[in-house]
Amino acid sequence: xxxxxxxxHPDDESFSSGGTIAKFTKEGNTVKxxxxxxxxxxxxxxxxxxxxxxxxxxxxxxxxxxxxxxGISKIYFLDLKDGTLSKIPKKLLIDKIYSIxxxxxxxxxxxxxxxxxxxxxxxxxISLCATETFEKYLRRAKKHVRLYHxxxxxxxxxxxxxxxxxYKAFGKIMGTDLSQITTVVDISETLDLKIxxxxxxxxxxxxxxxFLKRSNHKEFSFExxxxxxxxxx
Length: 233
Known about the structure:
Low-confidence stretches: none
Shape: globular
Mean pLDDT: 95
Largest sheet: 7 strands, mixed
Number of domains: 1
């Protein structure tokens, strides 16, 4: 099986789906990654490990280390500027993603849900455009293809709010009802690889620390997805 994950920045793949990616590749599946930007508007580390001018290059290097840990066989960078996706014409984003789907012909595509995991404008935009691209891809597919959104259960958000580790930088996340989550992936055997991958994103060490504080919750041994669209082939 061939799976393509579509995200906005280096580190999105590790935080949202790292355990699932490692599980897929360990089982012999092919996983490739579309990353819209190089994260050049993000953090430079605390204390700094790079400069703003070199941040995009540094984050690309971090992501390439992650691919070796998780087993991702190829990264497609869309070469768009971090923080600008909501201002870029939707057609441009869709055309870029579609050309890759046409080339790779994946069985499964995975992206953020409508909330983008954190309500980051880039995340929400890539979710919208990847979803619309998949609809175009599905109409022309000659095999069974599926689109999944990465989800955060409301029950988990409630626990994170109670222990003070909920992430609110881009607005309040509503989360997803368990009844709407179609696929729960047990990543207990690949959680160590997910954490190892997350730690590669040293420039984003504040987010890494936040994740590690959360990881004592049993829910972090699972990753959650909803099947959004599929054909009947």
